[in-house]
Amino acid sequence: MAAESKSQNSSLTSSNENHFFKIATLNCWAIPQPWPIGSKHRKLRIGKLIEALGACECNYDVVTLQELWSEDDFLLIAHQVAEKYPYSHYFHSGFTGSGTAIISQYPITSTLLHRYSLNGFAHHIHRGDWFGGKIVGMAEVTIGDLKVSIYTTHLHAEYNRKNDLYLPHRISQCYELAQFVRHTSLGADFVVLTGDFNIEPNDLGYHLVVNIAQLSDAWECRPNRDAPESFCAGMTCDRPDNCFTSPSVLKDSPQGKRLDYIMFQSRRVGLEVKECKNCFGQIESMDKPMNYSDHDGLCATFLMKADPPTESSSDRRSQSSVDRRLFLALCFILFALLVATLNIESSFPYLFVVVAIIRFVSTFSLWHGFIGLTIEMKALKETKFSMRKILRAIT
């Protein structure tokens, strides 16, 4: 349920005046379970985030948030900052919730979400992505007489880059994300996509999003991009200056990773990036160094120009088949064992637990082999055929 209230709407006409639009995004890392299962210092960090959002120097027009897994945390934030950000929306999805939300100084006139067709595996309980129901959420924000499509998303985590089991799912999500933005933003005056993509700039998923949705990366378009930067400028995750970063991850990425993005597209209103930088990093006035999250935030300031912009110029399927055959073979073996041990409990009561485990594993293997992996294969096939059509159209 969206938490919304009325506020005074700033007028923005299509005159020759230029206006600024400022947006920020942050992965809050707010898993509500107690540490070490949940997120460390969650309540303290949420409270400090509320203070930061309410501060005078925090002048964002829109803020998008990810990993707010508890709706109560979102409602607390929305209530505490309602005077400054009277419009808000939480995107509901999955078993635990999508974790994605938006707060805005301007009216949110409509919302829409798309749940990704592939999002990990149900039996990977230790990961939790499947239960979260990862989505891309859209909020149509009205700024005066302008309609702005704001998107926020959180894609499947990588976990192990050297042996990335979830790469096909994340690629599929990137493609669906790009298509969703492309087809739902046609009536917008300009478009902004934000969130934790869990992909790096050189990854295939990044190029799918940028090229299919025809978006520009605000970090790459910042005015001072050629100037010397600090050691880990622009990096948003696994930063060496983040107190939640494990020392082991710094061996492969000593400067951190750029996983969070603000992308944009000019439509009937021209956009020029005036500034793009990290935000919501280290919490000030703390006895011991602490960050708002295990991610740094990212913010961008756009100059909105009233004049119109000029126009800018099957491995996983095979693995899925193998997995399905393995699960089905296991299913038949276990079924044979089950039949062979139908009456064993009466003769050997102490084998009840063993028989129960065999029955459970055989039932799961049957379900995952016939249903789970079939769903995965069809989703990958749909992504493949749809991407093939786009490639044919542009070649």
UniProtKB/TrEMBL annotation:
GO terms for cellular component: membrane. One of its GO terms (biological process) is sphingolipid metabolic process. The keyword Endoplasmic reticulum does not apply. Residues 24-295 form the Endonuclease/exonuclease/phosphatase domain. Its EC number is 3.1.4.12. It holds the Pfam family Exo_endo_phos. It is a multi-pass membrane protein. One of its GO terms (molecular function) is sphingomyelin phosphodiesterase activity. It is found in: Membrane. The chain crosses the membrane at residues 326-344, 350-375. Its main location: membrane. Keywords: Hydrolase, Lipid metabolism, Magnesium, Membrane, Metal-binding, Sphingolipid metabolism, Transmembrane, Transmembrane helix. Pathway: Lipid metabolism; sphingolipid metabolism; Sphingolipid metabolism. Belongs to the neutral sphingomyelinase family. This is sphingomyelin phosphodiesterase. It comes from Ditylenchus dipsaci.
